Amino acid sequence: MSKITDYNDISQSYDSVREPADACILKSLMESLTGKCVKDMDIIDIGCGTGNFSEYFLRFEPRNLALMDASEGMLSKAKEKLQSVPPSTNLSFKHAVLPNMPYEDNSFDAAMMNLVLHHLEQDPDGKSFPKIVQTFKEVLRILKPGGVLTIISVTPEQLEANWFAHLVPKNKERWHKRLLSHDQLKNCLSEAGLTLKSAYNTLTASYHPDHSNPEGPLSEAWRRSISFWGTCTEDEIKDMVQNVTRMKNEGTLQEYVDTHEKLGIYGALHISASKKEVQ
């Protein structure tokens, strides 16, 4: 269960501000690395949220599509959304808290974890990520030989590239301990027995269409759509609102955004694919 965000509460408005960014890339990685079409796959969506990514994959009629999440509210929304299921697809839902994955060994051809990793460590230090490694070991167990894990995550460099992170410097420092660099992710995967095969950075925040709205941080609904704000103190939010309002009134807010926004250089998201090698 995430200690950052109350997803049972957020589930009511989540879909109005978030989209399944780059799901087509995940599909391509799964198919190219397994040598199978999605329609012949058993797939699991780990930390599925409201099922945005699973909704995309249902278009291609996978053999089995399993959704699991720690939030009953998110799962409830996913069940409401995914009503139109192809007759050839077996759809299932499970409530489970990572690293626990209540599935049999060698069950899935592909697994996806989309913006999940930063929720896992309870007291991150930025150096070791034991719960993430434990989670990856569980993924290894439930993947079939030759199976693939795709991950969408955010690196510390990409956090720095988000203009709004600079509005709350102390919270930005806290988040640096929560996010894995590319090398740290690779090492955690390797420790768990998975082999990194591909990694990319996307240059646009397509998962959050209203990302560049200069007045976004003034809106509680806007902030609630981004986990970063869930670890801010009340005083930090109060100070941030005062500063953004001041810049808005002075006419300097857009200049602030333009100065600090660096997604075009460092990327918005890190997408990777790793494999359970055939022994």
From TrEMBL:
<feature type="domain" description="Methyltransferase type 11">
    <location>
        <begin position="44"/>
        <end position="150"/>
    </location>
</feature>
<protein>
    <recommendedName>
        <fullName>Methyltransferase type 11 domain-containing protein</fullName>
    </recommendedName>
</protein>
<dbReference type="InterPro" id="IPR013216">
    <property type="entry name" value="Methyltransf_11"/>
</dbReference>
<dbReference type="InterPro" id="IPR029063">
    <property type="entry name" value="SAM-dependent_MTases_sf"/>
</dbReference>
<dbReference type="GO" id="GO:0008757">
    <property type="term" value="F:S-adenosylmethionine-dependent methyltransferase activity"/>
</dbReference>
<dbReference type="Pfam" id="PF08241">
    <property type="entry name" value="Methyltransf_11"/>
</dbReference>
